[in-house]
Amino acid sequence: SFLTGGVAALAFGYYRVHQDVWRAAEAVDARIDALGRETVSSNSTLQERVKALEHEVARLKATGK
User: Fold this and answer.
1) I need a labelling partner for 37 at 20 to 30 A (CA). Which of 7, 11, 28, 55 fits?
2) pTM exceeds 0.85 for this model
3) What are the tens digits of pLDDT across the range 15-53?
4) Per-position b or e across 30-47, b if 16+ CB within 10 A of its CB
């Protein structure tokens, strides 16, 4: 009886740990996806600003100022 209870408790503990690890892995994956989207968004904004500055520099060079 003690052995059966120990095995059942061990199996339940393994199941809970497995579920916790699975949820944590999903949370990490979701956060990585969110960070990827944020990076792309901020990178595109930065690229637009650089493009505008390059255009302004080219214009200033063309006018000789």
Assistant:
1) 55
2) no
3) 999 999 999 999 999 999 999 888 888 888 889 999 999
4) eeeeeeeeeeeeeeeeee
